[in-house]
From TrEMBL:
InterPro entries (UniProt xref): ARHD_Rieske_2Fe_2S (IPR015881), RHO_NdoB-like_C (IPR043266), Rieske_2Fe-2S (IPR017941), Rieske_2Fe-2S_sf (IPR036922), Ring_hydroxy_dOase_asu_C_dom (IPR015879), Rng_hydr_dOase-A (IPR001663)
Keyword NAD among UniProt keywords: yes
Protein name, UniProt field: Aromatic ring-hydroxylating dioxygenase subunit alpha
UniProt-recorded Gene Ontology molecular function terms: 2 iron, 2 sulfur cluster binding; dioxygenase activity; iron ion binding; monooxygenase activity; oxidoreductase activity, acting on paired donors, with incorporation or reduction of molecular oxygen
PANTHER family the record matches: 3-PHENYLPROPIONATE_CINNAMIC ACID DIOXYGENASE SUBUNIT ALPHA, CHOLINE MONOOXYGENASE, CHLOROPLASTIC
Length: 449
């Protein structure tokens, strides 16, 4: 039925447009497209669940969502990480409603069935009298999330039991995650992830973060007015935009000269020997010069590692955010604050305050972006939107000149690195991946006709 509807919406036409670098605006809010995205993208992609430091002790757990699938992520008695569907096997109610805690067993609030940390059903209220001896409890354990794997402390789940390994999926992105997460020997999450619902489509939010430093000079103009950001409208465009397989991407933003505004993102010099110890010379070179790392792991995890504050009081931290689709027009934002475990305690606290004032739910930068996303959703449903296309196809020799700006062969990191971040390379690779995934069976069907 959905396929038929899509055919009516001229799926072929959509494909042709996207090959030209034109994104029809209606795809942002179309309900049929959304249904396909949930099934075909989120049903088969690695989704971020949390960080290992959120569940440090045996029995520690957090509750999470893989779009509409509720998840209990926990550490069992042997210290292993496990993830189960957070739904009782008896009548299906949500088993655990707390955000986090520490338990030996999970007892259902409906009829009292209880499960251990390996998901086994271990207790049934009045079990022998109600169900008899012959009931095989081993058949009624919690359903495990088909695949759960970690990289650099980041735990991901996949609903597809046949999915490629997380490491293969991340590919070259691991090299950059090694800088972001491994530079000093490990990061930790402070506090619970903050959550809020934004009026936005998940494609627009992920693109905004991973692929679009060009918006910074206008959307976040107030930071220029406050003297936090430079006047130069190209200031967020210096550096490199790197595109990798599976539509992962990172922007390595530097200063105009390519040299550091402050070395190692304003971290205390006591940390620098650790960076030297954990990074390769090429990674160290990038970390020493970068102002902001910002990018994403497709489909819905974004990250930013900025410098915030004013001269003499600068802070760097890592913010991971997961965009959980709730509808074509709504996302639940999950926002984690991470910092080097080895960072001095005072610095951690100051950086956390810096995060709250910038990318936290009430932060200046967050508010700016949220407003824009809501306006995109608001205007994308009209009849005239059916043949309105968005521009990702500049072929000029200027910065946005996709395919005219040559990759920089001298960039030391893996992936295809363009010598500017004001370019649509990541955005286009996200669109290509998106179309490839949602149209997989449709095109097979069409070709076999
Ligand atoms: Fe959980 Fe009945 S629904 S015990
Ligand atoms: Fe922004």
């Amino acid at each position: 039925m959905i396929k038929k509807t899509l055919e009516e919406k001229a799926f072929k036409h959509l494909k042709e447009k996207m090959e030209e670098g034109l994104l029809p605006q209606w795809v942002l809010t179309d309900p049929d497209i959304y249904e396909l995205e949930i099934e075909k993208i989120f049903g088969y992609s690695w989704q971020f669940l949390g960080h290992e430091t959120e569940i440090k002790e045996p029995g520690s757990y957090v509750t999470r969502w893989m779009v509409y699938d509720p998840v209990i992520l926990l550490r069992n008695r042997n210290g292993e990480i496990k993830a189960f569907l957070n739904s009782c096997t008896h009548r299906g109610t949500q088993l655990c409603t707390a955000d986090r805690g520490n338990k030996k067993t999970f007892t259902c609030p409906y009829h009292g069935w209880s499960y251990n940390l390996d998901g086994d059903l271990i207790g049934i209220v009045a079990g022998n009298k109600v169900y008899g001896e012959e009931m095989d409890k081993s058949e009624w354990g919690l359903r495990p999330i088909p695949k759960v794997e970690s990289y650099q402390g980041m735990i991901f789940g996949n609903l597809d039991p046949n999915a490629e390994s997380l490491e293969d999926y991340l590919g070259d992105m691991k090299w950059y995650l090694d800088i972001l997460l491994g530079r000093s020997g490990g990061m930790e999450v402070i506090g619970l992830p903050q959550r809020w619902v934004a009026k936005a489509n998940w494609k627009a939010t992920t693109e905004n973060f991973a692929a679009d430093p060009y918006h910074v000079q206008t959307t976040h103009r107030s930071t220029v007015e406050m003297g936090i950001s430079p006047e130069d409208p190209l200031y967020a465009g210096y550096g490199h935009q790197v595109v990798m397989k599976n539509a992962h991407g990172i922007n390595v933003i530097t200063s105009k000269t390519g040299k550091a505004r402050v070395p190692f993102q304003g971290t205390p010099d006591s940390m620098w020997p650790l960076f030297e110890q954990h990074l390769t010379p090429e990674q160290l070179d990038i970390q020493s010069k970068v102002t902001v790392f910002v990018g994403g792991v497709y489909p819905n995890l974004s990250f930013v590692s900025p410098i915030h504050g004013t001269e003499g009081d600068l802070h760097n931290y890592l913010n991971f955010r997961m965009w959980r689709p709730l509808s074509p027009e709504k996302v639940e934002v999950w926002c984690w604050f991470l910092i080097d475990k080895a960072m001095p305690e005072e610095y951690k606290q100051a950086a956390y305050k810096g995060y709250l004032g910038s990318f936290g739910p009430s932060g200046t930068l967050e508010q700016d972006d949220t407003e824009t996303w809501a306006r995109i959703v608001e205007v994308s449903k009209g009849l005239m939107m059916k043949d309105k296309e968005l521009n990702y196809n500049s072929v000029s020799n200027y910065l946005m000149g996709y395919k005219r700006v040559e990759p920089d062969e001298n960039f030391p990191g893996p992936g295809t690195a363009y010598p500017t971040t004001y370019i649509d390379s990541i955005a286009r690779s996200m669109h290509e991946r998106w179309l490839e995934l949602i149209s997989k069976d449709l095109f097979v069907k069409e070709e076999s006709r």
